[in-house]
Amino acid sequence: MVANTYLEGSYSEIYPDIARDADGMRKLFRQFSFPGGIPSHAAPETPGSIHEGGELGYALVHAYGAAFDDPDLIVACVVGDGEAETGPLAASWHSNKFLNPAHDGAVLPILHLNGYKIANPTVLGRMRDEEIRDLFRGFGHEPLFVEGDDPRLMHQTMADALDVALASIRSIQQHARDGRKTIERPRWPMIVLRSPKGWTGPKEVDGKKVEGFWRAHQVPVSGCRDNPAHLKVLEDWMRSYEPDKLFDDNGALIPELQALAPDGQRRMGANPHANGGLLKKELKLPDFRSFAVEVPQPGSVIAEATRELGKFLRDVIRLNAKERNFRIMGPDETASNRLDAVFEATERVWMEPTEPYDVHLAQDGRVMEVLSEHLCQGWLEGYLLTGRHGFFSCYEAFIHIVDSMFNQHAKWLKVTRELPWRRPIASLNYLLTSHVWRQDHNGFSHQDPGFVDLVANKKADIVRIYFPPDANTLLWIADHCLRTYNRINVIVAGKQPAPQWLSMQDAATHCDAGIGIWSWAGTEDANAEPDVVMACAGDVPTLETLAAVDLLRKALPDLKIRVVNVVDLMTLQPREQHPHGLSDRDFDGLFTADKPVIFAYHGYPYLIHRLTYNRTNHAGMHVRGFIEEGTTTTPFDMVVLNKLDRYHLAIEAIERVPGLATKAAQVKQQFRDKLIEHSRYVREHGEDMPEVQGWVWPNSAGGNTPAEAGD
Amino acid sequence: MVANTYLEGSYSEIYPDIARDADGMRKLFRQFSFPGGIPSHAAPETPGSIHEGGELGYALVHAYGAAFDDPDLIVACVVGDGEAETGPLAASWHSNKFLNPAHDGAVLPILHLNGYKIANPTVLGRMRDEEIRDLFRGFGHEPLFVEGDDPRLMHQTMADALDVALASIRSIQQHARDGRKTIERPRWPMIVLRSPKGWTGPKEVDGKKVEGFWRAHQVPVSGCRDNPAHLKVLEDWMRSYEPDKLFDDNGALIPELQALAPDGQRRMGANPHANGGLLKKELKLPDFRSFAVEVPQPGSVIAEATRELGKFLRDVIRLNAKERNFRIMGPDETASNRLDAVFEATERVWMEPTEPYDVHLAQDGRVMEVLSEHLCQGWLEGYLLTGRHGFFSCYEAFIHIVDSMFNQHAKWLKVTRELPWRRPIASLNYLLTSHVWRQDHNGFSHQDPGFVDLVANKKADIVRIYFPPDANTLLWIADHCLRTYNRINVIVAGKQPAPQWLSMQDAATHCDAGIGIWSWAGTEDANAEPDVVMACAGDVPTLETLAAVDLLRKALPDLKIRVVNVVDLMTLQPREQHPHGLSDRDFDGLFTADKPVIFAYHGYPYLIHRLTYNRTNHAGMHVRGFIEEGTTTTPFDMVVLNKLDRYHLAIEAIERVPGLATKAAQVKQQFRDKLIEHSRYVREHGEDMPEVQGWVWPNSAGGNTPAEAGD
What we know:
2 copies of one chain form a homodimer.
Chain A: H1 2-8, H2 10-14, H3 22-31, H4 59-67, E1 74-80, H5 87-92, E2 106-113, H6 129-138, E3 141-147, H7 151-177, E4 188-194, E5 204-205, E6 208-209, H8 228-239, H9 243-246, H10 255-258, E7 301-304, H11 305-319, E8 326-330, E9 348-349, E10 361-362, E11 367-369, H12 373-385, E12 389-395, H13 403-416, E13 428-433, H14 451-456, E14 463-466, H15 471-482, E15 488-492, E16 497-500, H16 504-513, E17 515-517, E18 532-537, H17 539-555, E19 561-566, H18 584-591, E20 597-601, H19 606-612, E21 621-624, H20 635-641, H21 646-656, H22 660-663, H23 665-685, H24 690-693
Parallel strand pairs in A: 1-2, 2-4, 3-4, 8-11, 8-12, 9-10, 12-13, 13-15, 14-15, 18-19, 18-20, 20-21
Antiparallel strand pairs in A: 5-6, 7-16, 17-19
């Protein structure tokens, strides 16, 4: 990529220092895989690239993401035979079942069988042509074979194959675009290219085979500084290309060869599809306030947060239907995650045959479902990287499947932000739901809230983590995320019916601050510090915290409680580490300098410690969260097993407030008895005790008036 | 699985409470997907299972892991068409290129196309038979189709297909085992089973199609308590199986049907291969001390840690060659990770054609290389779960690809440890190398030390994380890990030439404690607390810490420095949280109660904070580690960019020791100047300054005698 874009001139336009002369070429060579220079594989710094080399597996799925909704684009995707061994790549071949020739572009896979990886032959490289043909016909392609080692013949054969492939693509597209109904899914062309690894490089070094073998990987001849024989091999190799005939006296490519490259944006290094921000159009968003759940009093209404979000997303789809630049991805879970309102506006894309009883399938659907988190993530990355927008909803536990893809995308964003010529692309937005705390029918395999721990390792300017506690806060956050660029936003929210806490106006104030005191829930005096801070992040921890506060308010009316709710987890970090981080003064204002803080958190408790270890009151922070307990059980039993329930939280508050444990010994014992009662009840009845199931926030009694106290 | 093992009797043997009578059956039904009961999919609690359902994708790769080196075993592996859409499963089909019919068992894949997932048709389910045939012939199989919906006909067709498949397997095996050389890789049989989803369940509910559609997923008819029509559907459905004819008056299966199940261990719930600990034989280990690197003085010898480990692993292979119960996995990286001594004892397994110039390939090799971390991990899991041993070496950054597989295996181990009938299996041992700190040619895409953060989220009795600082410690740790059961051991160690610190005897003392004071490196008095503690975990941080100590010793001879090296990261956790955790007293003894601790750590610094936030001196701990900086650059520049280098560490020590910053202002400035000099030098020369490259620990000068101070 680097050499090609240098020769076609686009490289020097972006990096004028690497000019098209001898000095520029020297710099070009020297910076390659050199400290302070550029990596040895495609990278953000490489013009015309949309993803980094190195970790393999994502070429084809990104190619499809790039082709969706771009009818004039043909994405030629070179898949190495090493990369072809990876799981994500193996699954990607089925992407052609989701590509609509009428309004999507085309992907032309070029499977490059050079036969070797770092130190091994490749699995596909050693398969016979018949097996390769069967395999890719089975994947829905018509393979065109280009095989040999004579460059002159090979170039012509390749050109012929490309002509055939492009004609075939054009024919498939015309057929679909003429409005003739496609009965059968088309058989798309692909090219299988067999050429030697290290082609035209040294045949042998020290009597050992190099060209056409894995020894040609990366450094075919080494130690040229000290080994004159190796230097000779290198020189002969370089001279074999007759550079004197290719470059003029100043080191510039001769005009006849320069003229071979296409012009302007048709050069591979200047293709705007590989700098998606150039093509990006603003996403049109409906007013999220119009989807507000009416919440006259905190806790007075029950709603399913993701179901409300579904209505908002439905209108996002409608508003951008003409632009065709927004898609929703989900591994067979859009309906299960209760976003099904989107099916009022669109369908699931499906190019395979349909049956009369099928529902919500269409060739031009905008929801993409396949039972592969890798494909969902990869399609979306490709779609975003080429200038579009999207949303990915996933079961919380299984998002770990794409940890490494998330990592690489975050790295990509980090580096592209430092390159002024790379224009911002839309953020990658995750909704993680069907989360750890609701496992009535699944169980331990579906319980892992640790993805955000990985996310929090990334650079502050790239990542955001949100825990909206109810529907209105979820709507505010989702709207906000869809407006951002060059970020990865992770929203964690439940799908089950749950009490709603904030009106849309309160939600807006709260989310805008990212964290705040819920004074309507607490019992503190305006002019004195509370005895204890009950903090929470996440919908279930918020519910349990409020229930604990309710217990404490009733049993110990003199106890001064402050309730702090965290929506934006990054507010907890020091301001120096994250732009959303609270200053120490603001943090201390919320969490006090020395009062006990009982923090109920959605995920692994360590994350809260790790974010707050430098704060004044860190020694006073007692975090409860998921500690890997519980399997198939009731909602309340899940929190009890992990000690995140109202009784454990209330007991801990009593124990942590100085002097209270003795005074309130009887109350504590009552709460302990409740835990025993619960345990017995749930084993007998298979459901939670009525007093837990039926608990509601006491709208009238005790607390301050319902209004956001801010931060 | 639960129903089948109950009917065959094995379930009641393991769980006598679930007897083969009406009462037992009632308990069986009631516990299913019920609080305190069992999950709705296969789980550790399920007899005959070797992995959990839920997260899909690993059935086939585990099946191959089970079949390797077990010549009499045929693993029938049912792959659902939902699971078939995942990346790991898609890659797994190529596993047949690594299975040797002469000494491995066989895998019989049964691709079950019931056509639907939760809410969608499946990709493979809607493919025509011709495409399916092409696809699986391309994968090297001969598909046998079993299709229909009449149970009577289908049972017979399935039995016939099984007969054909088993005969074909036997013929392939006999051919290979008769010593006739296999020229062509055999074409293994597989079965493609098309049957309706929810087969023999309700055809319709409320006028909507259920049998043969996705509505049959999990709960085909709901709300039977309140909806009499639905209750009737349920009752009719259940009665359609004529239970009165199948069970006697006590609720026991009638003897004629009981007699259909095979006997003893041939029942699926009593198969010892699905309780691998029953079959496990001790791994024979050479004396790791015999591979010791001679280290007369700390830092006096240079060695490559992983290369030394390779020799030890070579002999592990030799000692267990007859038992054939040890394999090494690696994604094309065994040689790159410098474990190539293993090729003196074995080769890479390779069943595809070979060329005369190929090296280290053999049909009976014991090293498994494929460019898929998913396959390496999955094969190894399957191999361990069926009672064998293994070792997985991987580039550190790319191990994130299998985060989710690691998670699920850790969950499996956690639950199996609580089941007395499940016998312990060998630990899953990772060597993570080619790590973040050495990226001369790769770069940012290859830099991520965060896998251990994920590991540390798991239950303490399952996971161990080791950072051996040199070759002898690596040998000790590797030997230790290979002796453990039911754990996941993660070893992080570099492959580059590096100074060696400990003799084997000192290494043994140090590793046995897991953490210790290196008094030979420090300058503290025996009877007084040091001014500063320089702590380190990881080979590169240890090197930089010692170099910083050397700088400080020379510049500030009066400064009392303690050096603490951490091999076993879990020693940092409180004893209550991890069995290896130090008591607070021991921890304070090492890190002091209030002196500044400059902690140089291999990974993301937060992990150290999270492990130590409860310790007395946490406020005094200043951790340096990877902060996502640096790309393709020199070894020393990498540490400088992340502020983990000797100069930054020495400067921080000066700044943190009370009163020293002013006194040592000049020294500090010298170190700062060195950083500027380095920066200039590396950009100009593309390599590190001679004084950095050539730095050696001063064997003679200053410090105490080289001996482990231990704890």
